[in-house]
Amino acid sequence: MGSAKMGEVKRAAQRLGVTSTTLRQQGWKNASPERIEAAEADPPDWLVVARERRRSKRTRQGRLRDRKNTAARLEVQARAVRERDITPSEVEDLLAAPPDWLIAEQARQTAQTEREAKDRIRRELTDVLVMSVHDAWFQQLKRATSDAEVDAIDARWAPEVDRVRREAQQMVDELTPGQAPGFIRGVSELLCRTGLALCGDGNCRTRPGG
Q1: Which terminal residue of the chain, N or C, has fewer Cβ atoms less than 10 Å from its own Cβ?
Q2: Using an 8 Å Cβ cutoff, are 67 and 81 in contact?
Q3: Torsion from C-alpha of 188, 189, 193, 199, nearest 10 degrees
Q4: C-alpha closest to that of 91 among 102, 83, 100
Q5: Domain boundary among 67, 101, 135
Q6: Residue 198: pLDDT band with limits 50, 70, 90
Q7: Cβ neighbours of residue 75 closer than 8 Å, sequence gap 6 or more
Q8: Where does 26-88 have alpha helices with state H?
């Protein structure tokens, strides 16, 4: 189908209140004004069904959007809004005098948000540290001149992977929201404690076995 014909079908779909895909499925390869007017004057069954389906879909999407926005304003999960069938018009009254269930749901949402944030930070920090260990490990392996030296290097560095994982876990577990501004500084200190040459300040401790 040429671009001009596709434009015709798209405009016809907008006018008839359906999608262009629906029209193409019904064999509409073009859309003359006469054909559109005929469909508007006497809608065929497929058009009636398609319009109703699209209307229902938009209604559901609008309901979900309102529920999501309402949940965001109340600082709770959408589930809480759905279970209590809360409408946007009720938000101001609920915020003005929060009932017990709202206070509990807000606390639950706050706790979940903090858990998710910590999980994300934990994953990212662990990945960075493990990659740094692997990089330093690999650099030493490149300079090894014998199998015995390779084995010795592996023996020194293998435990470091587990150690930085534990340190990352401990560091993130000890974080509170108020400590977020100092997080990067803490990461830098942790990198120095691992003995990796990543600090850039000349104060890093010696590498394991160094």
Answers
A1: C
A2: yes
A3: 40
A4: 102
A5: 101
A6: very low
A7: 106, 109, 110
A8: 33-41, 45-74, 78-84
Query: Please, which pLDDT band fits residue 199 given cuts at 50, 70 and 90?
Result: very low
pLDDT exceeds 80 at position 6: no
Phi and psi for 156 in degrees, rounded to 5?
-75, -40
Count of domains in the chain? 2
Let me know if residue 23 belongs to a domain: yes
- Same domain, yes or no: 132 and 76: no
The angle subtended at Cα 130 by Cα 125 and Cα 178, nearest 5°, is 15
Report the alpha-carbon distance of residue 74 to residue 70 in Å, rounded.
Answer: 6
Let me know if residue 89 belongs to a domain. yes
Report the alpha-carbon distance of residue 119 to residue 169 in Å, rounded.
Answer: 9
The residue out of 101, 133, 163 marking a domain boundary is 101
Domain residues for the domain of 136 are 111-193
Task: Decide if 161 contacts 133 (C-beta within 8 A).
Answer: yes
Residue 52, pLDDT above cutoff 50 = yes
Residue 127 neighbours by CB distance under 10 Å = 11
Amino acid at 204: C
